Amino acid sequence: LANGENEGQPLILDDLMIIPKPNKDDYDIFYRDSITEPAAVLNELKDELDRIYDLGGYFILTYHSQILAAYPNYPIIAEMIDYIKSKKIWLTTWQELTNWWRKAHNIELKIIETNHQTAAGSLTLINRGHTSVEDLSIQFFPSYYSSKIQFQTKSKEPINWNFDAQTGSYEISIKKIKPRAYYQIHFNPGLTVPTY
Q1: Model pTM?
Q2: Which of 60, 47, 48 is nearest to 19 (CA)?
Q3: What is the mean pLDDT of each run of 10 residues along the chain (196 residues)?
Q4: What is the CA radius of gyration of the chain?
């Protein structure tokens, strides 16, 4: 699905949400890649999930009744679900995803680095929607690698963050952004953190 500047993102048309296919499904693996041995198929699906997981994207486990859901392949589905559950992943239904996307697509993110040498600056999130957005997670890659960046906000809503040394990124978690409100986070790798 190509949707201009929003390519790769869901397209909402009234009550219909079209989600682009981000990964291979069983048809791609069996017929396009010619992989049919069950262990190899499972490994291919796991590789697809890992690739998308590392990018912070979404994975859709799609299968056909005459391919993966047919004997002798159907145990692959259960093994893949177990593998998915072993990761830090939001397992959801289409309805939950649609409801979340309707809220989340109203969030605008602006990043201003005031000092590229030390990765100091601010993140501003603006909720342009009419409803609160809860449990928001942002993966932030500062231009300067530092495991000592501190984050602070003057909002009463709590902020949590974790550093991932492997990727050099921070996962920032925000409990709630109210409708028509903004949330500003200052970041600084030094000992001096903006106080309010």
Answers
A1: 0.60
A2: 60
A3: 52 77 92 95 96 88 91 92 91 83 82 76 87 84 76 76 85 87 80 37
A4: 20
